[in-house]
Design goal:
By secondary structure, the protein is mainly α. Helices cover 83% and strands 0% of the residues. The chain contains 15 helices and no strands.
Length: 386
């Protein structure tokens, strides 16, 4: 999907403005549904919620790929409806994924588990990107058409809902888990950590603005401005996944060395500098190298962000912070997607990437301020006790 979906929409005749609004509308639904998804999941359980999420994603994307069966005047509405259903499912997936991993592991296992997860994602994304880059050419020949037609991209994209459906079956087969351990469940109730909620949501939102620029528009940048083929785009986006696999293996060491907050800040700063470089040097090799670096830093930022969200609150608020992580991520991606299509048309890709890099740096600054103030408060409390 990351390689082909935007290219498919372009071949259907849609411009960057519509593509940005479509992507943004789905991600806005993702943000709005995060807290309701957390509430529903508390009633049906994490495992069932994850299985349900995959069913929704598979169903929504299937509707998107069937939209060409509708009259041309209804394509936009059909795309929006299917896309929104997909992102309702994404809300259930992202809200419950981190609490599920917390519940399924003990304290000693968590740094490795949270670090290995992005490595596995990167490895499979690498394979999927290479396949995505090669399939349209092969399918175009089989369908007796060209790569300027939407048909080969649509045919290749049908592998996506199949993958989601298989993931749903896997989640359905897993044993249920509880959000808190027996020791955690008897802890006294704590007040709502409103400061942590606000600060964490801001951190995620500004970081998502930078990350969203790459995730939502990088393939269009390669296609529209740098004019490289779909096979080359698939190769670039596929090989960019290799560095995260290696970096994820050393992420536990980085976390133990720097701490969760400082690791998150450092990874976000480096990622912002790489996004700015994409904007400053419009060359496919530079873009590929910087994409690899951004994804490599995401392999560090992702686990540190997830652990940070779980560590700053007591166990009873973990699902809430996971939902707020989704709210911040989704609203940041949605804002960039909705505005990005118009921004690219008005000022070009370079200025757009530079702006989003600045927003990502803002996230790192908020992390640093929070960590320093928290450390100062804890040091003062220790002195007072002594």
């Amino acid at each position: 999907m990351g390689v082909l979906f935007n290219l498919y929409l372009v071949r259907m005749g849609f411009d960057t403005e519509f593509i940005g609004l479509l992507i943004g509308s789905g991600q806005l639904v993702w943000a709005v549904m995060a807290l309701p998804a957390a509430a529903i999941s508390a009633r049906i359980g994490l495992t069932r919620a994850l299985a349900f999420s995959e069913v929704l994603i598979a169903s929504g994307f299937s509707l998107v790929l069937l939209v060409e069966w509708l009259p041309r005047s209804l394509w936009e509405e059909g795309l929006v409806i299917g896309w929104m259903i997909l992102w309702v499912g994404a809300a259930f997936l992202t809200v419950n994924g981190v609490p599920f991993l917390m519940a399924a592991t003990d304290v000693e296992e968590r740094p490795r588990a949270f670090a290995l997860l992005p490595a596995m994602i990167a490895l499979f994304t690498f394979a999927g990107s290479l396949i995505a880059g090669l399939l349209p050419g092969a399918l175009a020949e089989w369908l007796h058409t060209t790569l300027d037609d939407a048909a080969p991209y649509r045919a290749a994209l049908w592998l996506a809902p199949l993958g989601f459906a298989l993931a749903g079956l896997h989640f359905a087969a897993l044993r249920p888990v509880t959000v808190t351990s027996k020791q955690e469940s008897i802890e006294p109730r704590t007040a709502v950590p409103m400061r942590e909620f606000v600060v964490f949501t801001a951190i995620i939102y500004f970081a998502a603005c930078g990350e969203g620029a790459v995730r939502n528009f990088f393939n269009l940048y390669l296609d529209r401005q740098l004019h490289i083929t779909s096979a080359q785009i698939g190769a670039v986006m596929g090989f960019a996944q290799l560095l995260p696999v290696a970096i994820a293996l050393i992420t536990p060491l980085i976390l133990m060395r720097l701490g969760t907050g400082m690791t998150l800040a450092a990874a976000t700063v480096f990622s912002a500098l790489c996004i700015a470089t994409i904007g400053l040097i419009p060359h496919w090799f530079v873009a590929a190298a910087m994409l690899m670096a951004v994804l490599g830093m995401n392999a560090v930022a992702g686990p540190s962000r997830d652990l940070f969200s779980q560590e700053i609150v007591s166990p009873r608020w973990r699902t809430t912070t996971s939902a707020l992580s989704t709210v911040g991520m989704a609203s940041g991606w949605a804002a960039v997607a909705a505005v990005g299509g118009y921004a690219v048309a008005a000022v070009g890709f370079s200025a757009f990437f530079l702006l989003c890099a600045t927003l990502s740096l803002t996230s790192a600054m908020v992390v640093l301020v929070y960590v320093r103030r928290t450390n100062a408060t804890q040091a003062t409390a220790v002195v007072a006790v002594d």
